[in-house]
Write a structure and sequence with these properties.
This protein is mainly alpha-helical. It has two domains: 94 residues, no CATH class; 84 residues. Strands 1-2 form a two-stranded antiparallel sheet. Helix 2 runs antiparallel to helix 3. The chain is rod-shaped, with a radius of gyration of 46 Å. The protein starts with 19 loop residues before the first strand and ends with a helix.
Length: 218
């Protein structure tokens, strides 16, 4: 006694007529459920298209506003921290310099007052000559030179940098937009190809099913 051949059934309703096999997932469906499966794939494709469109929008934003790129934010952060360090060092040196200047200026003021008192005394006594005037002029010149070019303090620059220099490292160039469009086109083509195959098979089996039904009508 021969064994009965195993029939292919729909994965959802278990029907055996007008079976369609999806080439994408290799699942068998009846005509109705093949259409349902196609609609599900269409919804999945729509979600994928939305994700691609969303990503494309992000790319367009980056093209229009490159300053919002994450690496730009890192540069801004480096600039902020570096400026903060510079200002901190500048404030420290400025504070020390201010203290030294106050002491230095006070000392110069005392020396100037002493010379001024001598000049007043000379004029009061009405006892002065050319050497005295020359003496006061030389003293005044020295005070001015010392005041304008103080030798007791100066600004020096340390050769050791306390700020790390940044640079842009590029290992390779990738045209992200072209790559995106290539992937989108390839993915869309594959999905359309799968869906078209399902539609073609569904229509073929639907036609066969209709012919079979018509042939049975008396």
């Amino acid at each position: 006694m021969g064994t009965k051949a195993q029939q292919t059934v729909c994965a959802k309703c278990k029907k055996t007529k007008a079976i369609v096999t999806c080439k994408g997932c290799s699942t068998d469906f009846c005509v109705d459920h093949s259409n349902e499966h196609h609609n599900e794939l269409s919804e999945q494709l729509s979600k994928t298209e939305n994700q691609f469109n969303q990503f494309k929008s992000e790319i367009e934003v980056q093209k229009a506003k490159p300053q919002i790129h994450e690496l730009m934010k890192q540069i801004d952060q480096w600039e902020y921290e570096s400026t903060k360090k510079i200002r901190q060092v500048a404030d420290e040196v400025r504070h020390k310099l201010s203290s030294y200047i106050n002491t230095f200026v006070s000392d110069q003021d005392i020396k100037l007052k002493q010379l001024s008192e001598k000049i007043i005394q000379y004029r009061k006594d009405n006892d002065f000559a050319e050497p005295d005037i020359q003496f006061f002029n030389e003293k005044l010149k020295r005070l001015k030179d010392t005041f304008n070019n103080p030798a007791m303090f100066n600004i020096e620059y340390d050769s050791v940098s306390f700020i790390n220099k940044i640079c842009l490292k590029m290992e390779g160039k990738i045209c992200l937009i072209l790559e995106f469009e290539r992937l989108f086109s390839l993915h869309f083509y594959r999905m359309v190809k799968i869906n078209c195959s399902i539609i073609h098979i569904a229509l073929h089996h639907r036609t066969s099913y209709v012919k079979e039904c018509c042939s049975q009508v008396p």
